Amino acid sequence: MAKIDVITEFRDDHRKVRDGILEIISALQTKDVTKARKILGSLNIMVGPHFRYEEESLYPALKVFLGEYVDQLISEHDGVINTAKTCAELLAKDKLSDEEAEKAADAARALLVHVSNCDGLAILSERLKSKELAELGDKLDAARKSGVPLLDWAAKIRKKK
Ligand SMILES: [Fe+2]
Question: Is 67 a domain residue?
Fold first, then answer.
């Protein structure tokens, strides 16, 4: 029996990321780069295991419903990782010009679109068998325990097709 309810946890992650991204956007409106950077740093830590779980466990499990569309989800992650990098590079600066702040906010909005798309996978996951869901729960738990942040995972572990 899995220790966690995987769909609930999966959706809770999305809520936390949604709220974090919205906070980044509002911090950028007041040019509070330090705050935006801090939030992005905590999202990077939280989202690493989530992405890893998706690519290593959830997407293969959803192939039964989505077939080759699963590959699209992986390319969407490519885009998200690049956008997150752009955002992190901009937020590494001490000060942002109006243009840079707008560029970082745009990057954050692009990430928000992905959160919304990804949450849709929950409705498909509900159709998996309870044994599969229990196994997925263990996988999410394991990804969290290994705790590799998103950009580190992308640079060092994630296998490119
Ligand atoms: Fe997700």
Answer: yes
Provide the residue range defining the domain that includes 23: 6-144
Instruction: Evaluate whether residue 135 is within a structural domain.
Output: yes
Number of domains in the chain: 1
> Within 10 Å of residue 121's Cβ, how many Cβ atoms?
20
CATH code: domain of residue 122: 1.20.120.520
Tell me the CA–centroid distance for residue 62 and ligand 1, in Å.
13
For residue 140, the CA-to-ligand 1 centroid distance in Å is: 11
Tell me the pLDDT tens digit for each residue of 103-117.
999 999 999 999 999
CA 98 to centroid of ligand 1, rounded, Å: 31
What CA–CA distance (Å, rounded) separates 36 from 32?
6
Q: What's the pLDDT tens digit per position in 56-72?
A: 999 999 999 999 999 99
Task: Measure 95 CA to ligand 1 centroid, in angstroms.
Answer: 31
